[in-house]
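Weekly puzzle thread! Below is a chain. First person to post its structure in token form gets bragging rights.
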Amino acid sequence: MNQKILLIILLLLAGIPVMCDETAPVPQAEQSEINLPQEVETKEPQKNVKTLIIPPKWTDFCEIGYENAVYKDSHDIFNIFSFVKSERVKKNYWAERRVSFESYLKSCNALNDDAKASCYNELRNMENQKNDLYKLKRKQLLYENNIELDRR
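Winning reply:
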């Protein structure tokens, strides 16, 4: 008796997805609401609208894990290991970049609103160029040391 009840329950559960019509087309009104943002019509012309100027963030450009890197000039006993030395060099690189970024951002913040937007854009472009150069130099260094980049 228990086996028959279990069999009936399994057949009903297996039939539920068949009964559900998942391929039904979405009505046109709902589809446009889902895919497209609604435009709000205003009858009054906007006056004195200030655009929101968002300053760039260091975390947008920095490699993950080096957001708060601090420059270390001292050499420690573990410097004989190449990975410790290379890690220190990498931390120092990101620490120097962060100091440079923050000083440029500070100078941008001192400007008026019109100049701030262009200063922020220039800062973003500079940091993106530095990141591109960093990636290129890293690939070149790996290539020179015969390290395969994409092992499969």
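Puzzle host: Confirmed. Bonus trivia for everyone else. The CA atoms of residues 34 and 58 lie 34 Å apart.
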